[in-house]
Design brief:
It is a single chain. By secondary structure, the chain is mainly alpha-helical. The protein contains 19 helices and no strands. Helix 4 runs antiparallel to helix 10 and helix 12 packs antiparallel against helix 19. The radius of gyration is 23 Å and the shape is globular. The two termini are about 10 Å apart. About 50% of the residues are buried. Keywords: Cell membrane, Membrane, Transmembrane, Transmembrane helix, Transport. GO terms for molecular function: transmembrane transporter activity. It is found in: Cell membrane. InterPro entries: EmrB-like, MFS, MFS_dom, MFS_trans_sf.
Length: about 500
């Protein structure tokens, strides 16, 4: 890999005029980082608040949808925002995404029941998806290639920071204010970012004419929605022999076929099918999908275990998640530095997926009596594994695809990770809900009725015998979740061995 000095010399003359015309980065860049932090934060901040939200609004069987709705809608809009930015200018598109996000946040804070909250989380996600992709594209408008690596590394760090801060901040707000403040807190921060971006962001004025592939986006949205509905409702809300359930899957298959057909014939496809002939892109997308399943599945259900089984408060559960989140953050930075020195990245997905698989198997052995310190080790191992994989996959894709496909390949790899998160939360939610109900039905006699709403506080005050039976059922349901996750991650481990080291590009 070239030294920074050499790289700067190779592109400096070409980029210098563009940089001088740009506003001071000391104002704009923190605002862009804040926007990215808000978008990433809302993927994880609700995790420690879920038991409290369910306790107030009800709908335990729909619990995972509070996370899934945001992930799903933000995933669907990612490919569109990139084209909108080129067509209408990144500034106005980013401002629009922030406004949609803030409106969704305000409305989530006043939701009165679970269906309302889920629908409004989807609205919030439509803005959140734009925050991520347009912010990353905006870096290309104001920072020359020679300096872009370190700035994009900061965005990776912010994403890791959000996974650390999210559960922690969510727990603190729930305990000391209300779960509604996990949404209200976005308003002043988002408004500040909006004002700064409006004042100092002056992107390049030339706009690229694009044909927006609305049909492709429609087919993609239909396919993802059907897939999520099938994985979340199968075996929990609907029995596996339900015609309605299998009709949903059939509609999803038809939508996938429609998407492939549209991408073959679209003038500017959302995801060019030529990318799927690139070995590294396909492998990175598949591994990223599985990593998304692992990350969001574990972030959603570990706080539940801590609050229900260990009796932690929401803020304590957030603090107890630090070993996992710290592992993600530290190993992301360590892996990046090592790759910069040795110029090879293949070993990191292999080691990372192995660590994740082992950690999931260990989490599947959690008992009610498992010491919390032992659990910290398991979560730390899981975080280190995820940190070795997440950013490295994006690097591998950007390093191997043609330059003309760089943007769409990056968003495509990110898209698959987000899809994995949506599927993981929905599928694990269904597995957990079904497992809990089945075990409770087997353990409790027919005349026993559990009090509603069933918050962690209510669970702690159940009669001793009933409390022990509920915790047994709860822990058993989580065993199934993490055992299923371990089996899926083993597949990612096998796929990682098929990746190849390509020499790191030393020019843009």
């Amino acid at each position: 890999m070239q030294s920074p000095t050499h790289t700067a010399q190779s592109v400096g003359e070409e980029s210098a005029p563009a940089v001088s015309a740009h506003p001071p980065l000391r104002l704009l860049f923190p605002a862009l980082l804040l926007v990215m932090l808000l978008a990433a934060l809302d993927q994880t901040i609700v995790s420690t608040a879920l038991p409290t939200i369910v306790g107030e609004l009800g709908g335990l069987d729909r619990l995972s949808w509070v996370v899934t709705a945001y992930l799903l809608s933000s995933t669907i809009v990612v490919p569109l925002y990139g084209k909108f930015g080129d067509l209408f200018g990144r500034k106005i598109v980013l401002q629009t995404a922030i406004v949609i996000f803030l409106v969704g946040s305000a409305l989530c804070g006043v939701a009165q029941n679970m269906p309302q909250l889920i629908a409004l989380r989807a609205l919030q996600g439509i803005g959140g998806g734009g925050l991520m992709v347009v912010t990353m594209a905006a870096v290309g408008d104001v920072i020359p290639p020679a300096q872009r690596g370190k700035y994009q590394g900061m965005f990776g760090g912010v994403f890791g920071l959000a996974t650390v801060v999210g559960p922690l901040l969510g727990g603190f707000l729930v305990e000391h204010l209300s779960w509604r403040w996990i949404f209200y807190i976005n308003l002043p921060l988002g408004a500040l970012a909006l004002v700064v971006i409006g004042a100092v962001f002056k992107p390049r004025v030339e706009q690229v004419k694009h044909v927006i592939d609305y049909m492709g986006a429609g087919w993609l949205a239909a396919a993802l929605t059907c897939l999520i509905l099938f994985t979340s409702e199968g075996g929990s809300l609907l029995p596996w022999n339900s015609p309605q359930l299998w009709l949903t899957l059939l509609m999803g298959v038809v939508a996938v076929a429609g998407f492939i057909h549209e991408e073959k014939h679209a003038f500017e496809p959302i995801m060019p099918l030529a990318l799927f002939r690139e070995r590294t892109f396909v492998l990175s997308s598949l591994i990223g999908f599985i990593v998304g399943v692992s990350l969001f599945g574990s972030v959603t259900f570990l706080p539940l275990y801590l609050q229900v089984v260990k009796g932690s408060t929401p803020s304590q559960a957030g603090v107890q998640m630090l070993p996992m989140m710290g592992g993600v953050l530290v190993m992301s930075m360590v892996a990046g530095r090592i790759i910069s020195k040795i110029g090879k990245y293949r070993m990191f997905p292999i080691l990372g997926t192995a660590c994740v698989a082992v950690a999931m198997m260990l989490l599947a052995r959690l008992e009610i009596s498992t010491p919390i310190t032992q659990m910290y080790l398991y979560m730390g191992l899981l975080g280190c594994g995820l940190g070795m994989v997440m950013q490295v996959l994006i690097l591998a894709v950007q390093n191997t695809v043609e330059f003309r496909h760089m943007g769409v390949a990056t968003s495509g790899a990110t898209l698959f990770r987000s899809i994995g998160g949506s599927v993981g939360v929905a599928a694990f939610g269904a597995v957990f809900s079904h497992g809990l109900h089945t075990r409770l039905a087997a353990l409790l006699s027919a005349d026993v009725e559990l009090p509603q709403p069933l918050t962690p506080e209510v669970i702690r005050h159940l009669p001793p015998t009933l409390h022990a039976q509920y915790l047994d059922a709860f822990a058993g349901a989580l065993h199934t979740v993490y055992l299923s996750a371990a089996c899926v991650v083993v597949l990612a481990f096998a796929l990682s061995w098929l990746m190849r080291n390509a020499p790191l590009r030393t020019h843009h």
